């Protein structure tokens, strides 16, 4: 990324009493990119967003928007758009008046205001709602008004803090797609805060996974999901099956032959970093949807403990001798084997990854 990235944070940190809300953090967001801040409650997501917005002063570091250091700027001087979970529309105003508000504050004339408001209404598919009072529209519609209101002033960066948090699940899922389409169409550089991993995977170009005031991994949705850098990321982004193992030797193509720390199981192949030492134990992570149940003789041997129908797949809980935790397999097909019966387990080599030792 170049020096003119629309948003840069240099060595930002924030402490409240004994709490490191945000440890020293630097990041850049590229033009038109949607970055998701993802992590459990209290990990510092809102703190980071509030520092960018100017509602919280960092203890150290600088916030740069374009080439301007805005660390000392008041929020309204930063040229940002914001949408929060409780989108707090102005209750006594119509949809159109809510959207026009920011333009009015900027001293933009009535004709231009009307034109821009109509453009935004069209964008969020609320063209027939301009004169409706905001408490006479649905939650999803209110959310779209909040989005239109934040975009109408043509912000340099859009900040979204759990913007869909108040919506029920179906509406939330359709809004995720809709919001992403609008963000991409306008090409507005954006940061979305969420603690919902599916939301981050669906919406973001890159995800920063946070834990206890730090970014522990940053990458595309595929990278953080398929190649987590540790157990924390791997488990936070969905269900992960974790195995203890020892490397036996390279198997070519970036793969390793490894022996699981379990009795009477065949050798398996996994993808992993260069230069593994065969003496050091490792941990392997495999997603439930990557595992396949099979009757092949070369497979791992497992016992079926439970199966639950989840609509689009069957969730199997398996027990492997010597493993304290169950293994989960998501399968589109129902196996003919009975509960309590033995079954084989295989995975495509490249979808089992070695978790780095230094990882979280
Ligand atoms: N104004 C404040 N005064 C004292 N402590 C604060 C303040 N704001 C945040 N904190 C603390 O800083 C930490 C990070 O809070 P933050 O609100 O950034 O978390 P978050 O990741 O947004 O969590 P959530 O998902 O619950 O919204 C928490 O331990 C929180 O209690
Ligand atoms: Mg928060």
Which terms summarize this structure?
single chain, 360 residues, alpha+beta, Rossmann fold, OB fold (Dihydrolipoamide Acetyltransferase, E2P), 2 domains, five-stranded antiparallel sheet, 8 helices, binds adenosine-5'-triphosphate, binds magnesium ion
Could you describe the 3D structure shown?
The protein has 360 residues and is of the alpha+beta class. The chain folds into two domains: 7-235, P-loop containing nucleotide triphosphate hydrolases (Rossmann fold, 3-Layer(aba) Sandwich), CATH 3.40.50; 236-355, OB fold (Dihydrolipoamide Acetyltransferase, E2P). Helices cover 23% and strands 34% of the residues. The protein has helices at residues 45-53, 95-105, 110-123, 139-151, 169-186, 197-203, 221-226, 231-236, and strands at residues 7-16, 19-29, 34-38, 60-65, 68-69, 80-84, 157-161, 189-194, 206-211, 214-219, 241-252, 255-260, 268-271, 282-286, 292-294, 300-309, 314-319, 327-331, 342-346, 352-355. The strands form four sheets. Strands 6-7-8-3-9-10 form a six-stranded mixed β-sheet, with helices on both faces. The chain has a five-stranded antiparallel β-sheet with strand order 13-12-11-14-20, with no helix packed on it. A hairpin with a 4-residue loop joins strand 16 and strand 17 (314-319). Helix 3 packs across helix 4 (139-151). It is elongated and about 75 Å long. The protein starts with 6 loop residues before the first strand and ends in a 5-residue tail after the last strand. Bound molecules: adenosine-5'-triphosphate and magnesium ion. Adenosine-5'-triphosphate is lined by residues 16, 19, 21, 39, 41-47, 195.
């Amino acid at each position: 990324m170049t020096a003119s990235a629309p948003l840069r944070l240099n060595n930002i940190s924030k402490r409240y009493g004994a709490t490191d809300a945000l440890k020293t953090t630097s990041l850049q967001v590229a033009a038109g990119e949607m970055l998701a801040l993802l992590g459990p409650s209290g990990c510092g997501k809102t703190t980071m967003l509030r520092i960018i917005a100017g509602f919280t002063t960092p203890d150290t570091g600088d916030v740069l928007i374009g080439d301007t250091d805005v660390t000392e700027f008041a929020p309204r001087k930063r040229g940002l758009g914001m949408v929060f979970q409780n989108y707090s529309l102005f209750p006594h105003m119509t949809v159109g008046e809510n959207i026009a508000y920011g333009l009015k504050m900027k001293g933009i004339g009535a004709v231009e205001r009307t034109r821009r408001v109509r453009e935004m209404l069209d964008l969020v598919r609320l063209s027939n709602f301009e004169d409706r009072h905001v408490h006479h529209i649905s939650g999803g519609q209110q959310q779209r008004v909040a989005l239109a209101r934040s975009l109408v002033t043509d912000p340099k960066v859009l900040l979204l803090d759990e913007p869909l948090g108040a919506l029920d699940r179906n509406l939330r899922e359709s809004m995720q797609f809709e919001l992403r389409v609008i963000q991409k169409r306008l090409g507005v550089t954006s940061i979305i805060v969420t603690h919902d991993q599916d939301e981050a995977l669906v919406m973001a170009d890159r995800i920063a996974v946070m834990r206890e005031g730090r970014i522990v991994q940053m990458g595309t949705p595929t990278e953080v999901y398929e190649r987590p850098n540790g157990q924390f990321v791997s488990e936070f982004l969905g269900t992960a099956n974790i195995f203890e193992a020892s490397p036996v030797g390279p198997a070519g193509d970036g793969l390793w032959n490894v022996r699981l720390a379990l009795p009477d199981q065949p050798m398996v192949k996994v993808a992993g970093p260069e230069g593994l030492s065969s003496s050091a134990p490792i941990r392997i992570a495999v997603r439930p949807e990557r595992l396949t149940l099979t009757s092949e003789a070369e497979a791992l041997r497992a016992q079926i403990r439970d199966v639950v129908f989840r609509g689009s797949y069957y969730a199997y809980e398996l027990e492997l001798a010597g493993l304290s935790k169950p293994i989960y397999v998501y399968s589109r097909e129902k196996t003919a084997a009975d509960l309590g019966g033995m079954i084989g387990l295989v995975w495509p080599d490249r979808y089992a990854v070695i978790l780095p030792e230094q990882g979280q």
